[in-house]
Amino acid sequence: MAKKELTIDLARCQGHARCWAIAPETFEIDEEGYGHVIDGREASFDEENVRKAIKNCPERSILIREVEDAP
């Protein structure tokens, strides 16, 4: 069964910090202003808030992807 995983493409992130402003329980900002996912496992994030952050990211650097469970 596939699970969801949350990531930020750091090559695209420009440090607008909108993800953190919308979902500070899911994202943190480093000393240079770039966003990072605190814990990207599906059970650890509020998908509704994450989807708001995705829509508000001007660089479209926040990704939710499906990953298969390890056997």
TrEMBL record:
Transmembrane residue ranges: none
InterPro entries referenced in this protein's UniProt entry, alphabetically: Fe-S_cluster_ET
Gene3D superfamilies per record: 3.30.70.20
Co-factor requirement: [3Fe-4S] cluster
Keywords tagged on the record: 3Fe-4S, Electron transport, Iron, Iron-sulfur, Metal-binding, Transport
One Pfam family named in its UniProt record: Fer4_13
Keyword Transmembrane: no
One annotated GO molecular function: metal ion binding
Protein name, per record: Ferredoxin
